[in-house]
């Protein structure tokens, strides 16, 4: 964790250097916008490698096929604009885009992302000054903003690549996320498609708009994340699925295998809708093959992109040297060290606070976890209110507790994950009102509640979202690291072992026979290997067979 915060501080410092460089050249935009953008592209090309040094030191590796990569490099020379659309399997898609964009033949990389991102300190501010495209979920307004931005760059003849994830959302394992997955599955069925298992449905209207600008230079990037021999962005409903964020990739050595392909989208919007859905069906099959076999289909060979250590180390060292020289010139020789130390403390503190409040890490860029802990405070409250209205009010103690916690969160705008309770007879989450929507409670096959038999009274424990990313958090957080001889802990351990046996994962190194030898010894899975244990503190044993 400390190593990740150190790398995060380094990245943020490099972003701060870029931010001040953009501030210095900003007045030029009032006189000559083309010169301003040329200088901005030069700043990004020179300082970008230094910004990418920490993730490289952390072990983030990108693998591409040589033929596909050469196709992408040729495109940079042939056109002023090309657009790359990625599946939204992580919170660091933008980081992969930067690492690809500044490798070999560097090109300015811009992003189409959600509007609030521009207000997050430092990196968000850099994106705003670099004239990235920010959207607010209203297509009528967003379309005009997208068109104006792209046309403006074409008029100044500024080469760039626009990168975006057209799914428009990232889903975790919460009630809101489960409901969104169900909506996407129903949308697929309405259009005659088998529900996607690895990707969400695309925002076809936005794709149609972008395709009119990109023409033949519209590409898809299908990314499979892997760590320790296990695919992280596996099935959306898999309780062991991990959504890599910035904190994760700076803490763990992670490999991203990228499959590039062209996408042809017609001028007619209905035709574009079908083409986007067909493309996402293809992507879903690609990821399913990778999950089953550890590679994409075909005979393509995926090799790591060059690390480019000289340029990355040299860029970061130059930024430190320039900053130190300026600090010494104003009589503050320790300023750089103090800034780095301050960033380490502030970033680490904000991330820990946001992780505790929201129950998980959402760090796509620095400060996002703590920001979304506040921004999403009302989201699950609305789901609670909807479920309460549908059910006629709380009918047991656990639901009353959920409502009380929601009210408290409403006052302080802090909590984003509220206790979940399921109805034993009806099946389905209180928050989502969807049958079988039980990823947070660990039910693998249905929606009936699992209740812990404690004496004569059956207690339902609210399913708090664990702060750990691991599905093994429930037992570990309760202090159960070895199989207890008797009592509720032994029953929960037995259920966890049965649940893992019910869904073996051949690609996970932690699920082998050795990991199942848990009698009297610490289980590797519970120690944090990320195996497919049920993910909830409230998981329990009851009148249910796996």
What does this structure look like?
There is one protein chain. The protein is of the alpha/beta class and 546 residues long. Residues 391-482 and 503-546 have low confidence and may be disordered. Strands 1, 2, 3, 4, 5, 6, 7, 8 and 9 form a nine-stranded mixed beta sheet that branches. Strands 10-11 form a two-stranded antiparallel sheet. It has 19 helices and eleven strands.
Determine Rg (CA atoms, Å). 24 Å
- Estimated share of beta-strand residues: 5-15%
**Main beta sheet: strand number and arrangement?**
9 strands, mixed
Distance between the termini: 36 Å
Unreliable stretches, pLDDT < 50, 5 or more residues? 391-482, 503-546
Number of strands: 11
**Mean pLDDT figure:** 76
The proportion of residues forming helix, as a percent range, comes to: 40-55%
Principal-axis shape equals: globular
Specify the number of helices.
19
Secondary-structure class: alpha/beta
Observed structural traits:
546 residues, alpha/beta, nine-stranded mixed beta sheet, two-stranded antiparallel ribbon, 19 helices, 11 strands, 48% helix, disordered C terminus
Brief overview, please?
With 546 residues, the protein is of the alpha/beta class.
How does the SSE layout of this entry go?
Blueprint: H1 2-25, H2 33-51, H3 53-58, E1 61-65, H4 66-78, E2 81-86, H5 93-101, E3 109-114, H6 123-129, E4 133-135, H7 139-155, E5 160-164, H8 175-190, H9 204-214, E6 218-227, E7 230-231, H10 246-251, E8 255-262, H11 269-293, E9 302-304, H12 309-329, H13 335-358, H14 368-375, H15 379-391, H16 397-412, E10 452-454, E11 457-459, H17 473-477, H18 488-502, H19 525-529
